[in-house]
Amino acid sequence: MQYLIIGIIFILAIFAIRFSNKRGIPALLLFIVLGMAFGALGLEFDNYEFSYNFATVALMVIMFYGGFGTSWKMAKPVAKEAIVLSSLGVVITALITGLFFHYVLGFDFIESMLIGSIVGSTDYSSVSNILRSKKLNLKYNTASLLELESGSNDPTAYTMTMVFLSVILGSEISVPLMVVSQVAIGIAIGFIFAYLIGKLIKNFSLDADGLYAVFMVSVMLITYSVADLLGGNGYLALYILGIYLGNMEFKAKRDIVFFFDGFTEIIQIGLFFILGLLSDFSQFLHTLPIALVITLFMTIIARPITVYGLMLPFRLKRNQLNMISLAGIKGAAAIAFAIMAVNSNAVFSVDIYHIVFGVCVFSSLIQGSLMPTASRKWDMLDPNDTVLKTFNYYQSKAEIGFLETRIHPNSSIIGSQIKDLNLAFDFIVAKIERDGKTIVPRGHVTIEENDIIVLGGEVHFDESGHDLIEFTIPKGHQWANKHIKDLDLHHDRLIVMVQRNGNDVVVPTGDYLLLEDDKVIILNIDDEENSV
How far apart are CA 360 and CA 271, in angstroms? Predict the structure, then answer.
């Protein structure tokens, strides 16, 4: 029965992602709602220990892959700003929020500081998800700044949470020593393992490509564990490891990217569903007013004060500062740290988990939903840029590819020399096959009928393929044995390619005759896109 439920959950999650992309609501928020809905329907779950362990693993994956996907080339120009926000920014935001919680809402001082620390960081998953899904091509390298800040600020929030939690538990620790060791050991382990693994990858070959992903997961687990055992910040070590390896070129990197793409998506769905399932709906409603007040305070006051104050020396533009201020979305890390507090067996006067849970829900709903609209209102979108270049894992899906085409009779390029070809894209003629022999494509070589020409170049991954529909003409279909010009096609559809017998690919004209079993590639633009 449990496998049936899991299968249904993932199917519903896929529909949630689709709904999110269309409506602009953060997908991760929908996973939380999905978990709450299953809880309300009677699926009982209150295992905080399992939830914390799952959240820890999920954060490990998110932190590592967040670093792995960070394009250092894009992030370097804004690294100073991002590092200031991910360190001092978290500290100041947490302290301001904690003071508000204590002096305005009247809660215990240390508990207030603990809650401020828990919700002090920006959630990488939510920010990157919105940037990518809504294609927010932000000006002034702002997407890279937000990516680097949100990907690297969880360690600061984790360290602050550990400090205040230790004070509440009455542990005899040196707070300065704890902070220094968390940061110093985390950085040291991150760089040491990054250097060693980088050397190993370059000189180590696995026979099966799939084993590289297993190897990378193992390295991730070992790095976190070693840093944690030595008293360092494991998340910080993982982020550094991810950045270092993600900006290297090595064999099977694309395999690792595709593996972690799916793995990260699955683990995030599972994490946010569990977090929603773990919540008690009545407690959620009870703490809702407090969560809403804290969210509004952080969105309107705490985050903007921090951003404007710390970014003053960097002279950023006002609309850019507004965008950075709005992007302080709370998510997985905050809820995981709240679970850590609950698991500590400390006695609290407030329901920390549900307060933090509510803050994350409101933050995703308010800030996440407003980002696309705000970016247009504040003139932050650059139509000539693409946010995808901010992320390494999209660039890593590019590879050198080859396209083979046959020169058919009456082709306009028969008789042309290679040097005279005007290739509009970054492709070269890699080789020519003629009568079963390979011809070196030097500039003076003349193209002849029935030549097979192989074009080579860089193939880039993008998300534009969703407009292309692949359709095989079945027996008795109305298109069979008809010319393309005689088909009653809608104005927003165009047949761009036909494949016959599984091999021959033709770019057809209106006089092309379609047959049964032809595979037809159709460009289909929906009404929503046409209206733009």
Answer: 14
Query: Does the pLDDT at position 464 exceed 50?
Result: no
Strand-pairing partners, residue 519, are: 472, 499
Q: Please tell me the distance from the alpha carbon of residue 166 to that of residue 173, in angstroms, as a whole number.
A: 8
Kindly tell me if the per-residue pLDDT of 206 is higher than 70.
no
Q: Which two tokens mark 261? A: 């793409």
The domains of the chain, with CATH numbers, are 2-40+47-394 (1.20.1530.20), 398-459 (3.30.70.1450), 464-530 (3.30.70.1450)
Q: Which residues contact 371 (CB under 8 A, 6 or more apart)?
A: 130, 134, 136, 323, 326, 327
Looking at residue 324, what is its pLDDT?
Answer: 94
Distance between CA 486 and CA 498 in Å, rounded?
A: 16
Q: How many CB atoms lie within 10 A of CB 114?
A: 27
Two tokens, residue 423: 């290739």
Instruction: Pick 41 or 372 by higher pLDDT.
Output: 372
% of the chain beyond a pLDDT of 70? 84
Starting at the edge strand found earlier in the chain, the sheet holding 427-434 runs 399-406, 452-459, 427-434, 437-439
Phi, psi of 178 (to 5 degrees): -65, -45
Q: How far apart are the first and last CA of the chain?
A: 46
pLDDT at 532 over 50: no
- Using CA atoms, how far apart are residues 388 and 331, in angstroms rounded to an integer? 22
Inform me whether the pLDDT recorded for 179 exceeds 60.
yes
Helix (H, G, I), strand (E, B) or coil at 409: coil
Residue with the larger pLDDT of the pair 3 and 324:
324
Contact call for residues 516 and 473 (beta carbons, < 8 A): yes
463 neighbors 387 (Cβ within 8 angstroms):
no
Rounded Cα distance, 321 and 129, in Å: 20
**Confidence bin at 425 (pLDDT 50/70/90):** low
Compute the distance between CA of residue 385 and CA of residue 395 in angstroms, rounded to an integer. 14
Tokens coding 12? 């519903």
Q: For 393-419, b where at least 16 C-beta lie within 10 A, e where not — what string?
A: bbbbbeeeeeeeeebeeebeeeeeebe
pLDDT of residue 33 exceeding 50:
yes
Q: Provide mean pLDDT across the span 81-107.
A: 93
Which residues are paired to 531 by β-bridges? Answer: none
The pair of structure tokens assigned to 55 is: 């959240």
Helical segments of 136-252, H only: 142-152, 154-169, 175-202, 210-229, 234-246
Percent helix, strand, coil in the chain, to 5, is 60, 10, 25
Structure tokens at 254: 């694309």
What one-letter code names the amino acid at 442? R
C-alpha distances (whole Å) from 103 to each of 31, 92, 356, 359 are 34, 16, 18, 19
pTM, 2 dp: 0.69
Both tokens of 332, joined, read 């997985």
Joined tokens for residue 493: 């559809």
